[in-house]
Design goal:
The protein is mainly α. The chain folds into 2 domains: about 60 residues, Orthogonal Bundle (Arc Repressor Mutant, subunit A); about 150 residues, GntR ligand-binding domain-like (Four Helix Bundle (Hemerythrin (Met), subunit A)), CATH 1.20.120. It is about 70% helix and about 5% strand. It contains 10 helices and 3 strands; from the N terminus they run αβααββααααααα. A 3-stranded antiparallel beta sheet has the order 1-3-2. It is globular. The N terminus is likely disordered.
């Protein structure tokens, strides 16, 4: 007798190698899914090769993390973060990323220093060429490397979730006119302190950088609103 396919194929489909919750979280953090974008279970299931049940469970988990919100009669969507919340998130980042910078400064190998210096050189080249997209990507790469080098898994986990919530504000900040000329010296200062193996200087440099982000976010939001109103 020929075997028939189960009518509930949703439960029998093989799951992807990367858990679907991680894949959706990464897509939000990388800006592939933008704030207020609807997250349709069928589309996500097809895109990530996961069952509808797994997608549903993933959306519930991401809702609890603050990355997704459920709207009555409209399903799930990427949660938009207000300016006030973006500032609060960055205040938390300032403490945790400062901690990570201090930890990383104590653990660096020569290979790690070479990686950091290479990112710094690439950042300088991107700013000199006016390539803001490359600079934005290198910015994310630097912060991710510091989190990894710190070896502080709890802080790293929290920071990666916060990054996903704040992705829109981070991108707009990177594209803000004149911002790279301010943040580049700050990033180079962080790299210098890390490579010198100075935990206190590395933490202070990271905190100064993120304090600068906090101070600039209201200006970025005002520029965004003006741009929308002018359309």
């Amino acid at each position: 007798m020929t075997a028939t396919k189960s009518s509930n194929s949703d439960e029998t489909e093989p799951e992807p190698a990367v858990p679907v919750v991680d894949a959706i979280r990464a897509a939000i953090a990388d800006g592939e899914f933008v704030p207020n974008q609807r997250l349709i279970e069928a589309d996500l299931s097809e895109r990530f090769g996961a069952s509808r049940a797994s997608v549903r469970t993933a959306l519930v988990e991401l809702t609890s993390e603050g990355l997704v919100e459920r709207v009555q009669n409209r399903g799930a969507r990427v949660r938009a973060v207000s300016l006030t919340e973006a500032i609060e998130i960055t205040e938390v980042r300032m403490v945790l990323e400062g901690l990570c910078a201090a930890k990383a400064a104590e653990r660096l190998t020569e290979h790690d220093r070479d990686q950091l210096r290479a990112i710094g050189s690439a950042m300088q080249a991107a700013v000199a060429a006016g390539n803001l997209l490359d600079y934005s990507g290198l910015n994310k790469q630097l912060h991710a490397l510091v989190r990894t080098l710190a070896g502080q898994t709890t802080a790293r986990s929290v920071l990666e979730r916060l990054r996903g919530q704040n992705v829109r504000h981070q991108f707009q900040l990177a594209m803000h006119p004149g911002r790279p000329s301010v943040s580049l010296p700050q990033h180079l200062e962080i790299i210098e302190a890390l490579c010198a193996g100075d935990p206190e200087a590395a933490e202070a440099a990271m905190r100064r950088h993120l304090r600068s982000v906090i101070d600039t976010l209201p200006e970025v939001e005002t520029t965004r609103i003006r741009r929308i109103n002018s359309l």
